[in-house]
Amino acid sequence: MNLDYLQLAIDEAYKYQLLTYPNPAVGAVVVKEGRVLAIEAHQKAGTSHAEVLALLATFEVLSGKCVAIDKFDAAAVHHFLVTEAGDGFFKDCTIYVTLEPCSHRGKTPSCANLIAQLGLKKVVIGALDPIRSHSGGVQMLRSAGIEVEMLNSKAAKDLIEPFIIWQKRAFVVFKLAQTLNGQIGGGYISSQESLTHVHKIRAVTSKLLIGGNTVRVDRPTLDCRFSEGRAPDIYIYSRSGDFDKSIPLFSVPDRSVAIGEDLEFLQKPGLVLVEGGEGMLNALEERVDWMLHFVAPLLKSGEVSYNGRSGLEFLHIAKNSTDLVLWSRIIG
């Protein structure tokens, strides 16, 4: 049962995978006497962590009150819960968290400290925090008399792999949109929900990397108009710098566009999204960490598809309104 509850938290966290950059994706589930009271995930860096959102949602369920507070204002939610949820309000609750609750105070207060003050019955943790300065949550909880169980879940560790990598160098994710039979050409394939999801990822990336042939053929804009986010800086991977400057991506304001074959920027910490065709995939095969597939429920004729050489390990499979959303790791 512990793994079932943890999986709910992992599934929720994947909805925001990469969108929390530079923070890790984290999910949390609160359970009382076998009843799931809240399923939440961290959504954006600088805002409330998964545990905070889950505990606030739990308070609303158990109290029957709708709290008039900005749930993403972490400090405000911490103060509210500590002030209003006294007298053992959470004493019979167990929280399942994909990552060890943070012990330090950064842009948001310590989640471990909040849980300790609220006096939950038990905390079940999927994976320890890999950043030493952030760890210590387990010790803080146990010192407060709260039972802590460590699951050392592979799925929970996989969830934070992007976070671990982008501390040292760029985490590189290759985005693919295709039909069920592998076709990629002929205009938009993905649903509006999937398109918006990609635009949200673009908005938080350090850089968007795209092949020169894709730019010449598709003449893309590569902005974030569906999410109203900032347009990402672009690096066009190409031997030739000869491009038609009327291609829309060159006229998007407040962005830089570079052209070349020097990928040294991938050695710097960051998040890099790659969009392109088969040639780009094969050229970057050894540099891509994960792939993100959006598979539309379409059978389409055509000749444009991906024929990469890589083997993949599926990490997470979900479905939005219509499309399958597949996260996978390249394994050679």
Listing every helix as H and every strand as E from the N terminus to the C terminus, the arrangement reads: HEEHHEHEHEHHEHEHEEEHEEE
- Computed CA radius of gyration, to the nearest angstrom: 22 Å
Low-confidence stretches: none
Q: Which secondary-structure class do the elements indicate?
A: alpha/beta
E-strand count: 13
In DSSP terms, counting alpha (H) and pi (I) runs of 4 or more, how many helices? 10
Strand ordering within the main sheet = 9-8-7-10-6-11-13-12
How large a portion of the residues is in β-strands, by DSSP E? 15-25%
Q: In one word, what is the shape?
A: elongated
How would a textbook summarize the main sheet? 8 strands, mixed
How many angstroms does the end-to-end distance come to? 34 Å
| Helix content percent band | 25-40%
Kindly report the average pLDDT value: 93
Structure in words:
With 332 residues, this protein is α/β, with parallel strands linked by helices. Helix content is 27%, strand content 24%. The chain has helices at residues 2-14, 50-63, 74-84, 111-118, 137-143, 154-159, 161-165, 192-204, 212-218, 278-283, and strands spanning 27-32, 35-41, 93-99, 122-127, 147-150, 170-179, 207-211, 234-237, 257-260, 270-275, 290-296, 312-319, 324-330. The protein has an eight-stranded mixed β-sheet with strand order 9-8-7-10-6-11-13-12. Strands 2-1-3-4-5 form a five-stranded mixed β-sheet, sandwiched between helices. The chain is elongated and about 70 Å long. The two termini are 34 Å apart.
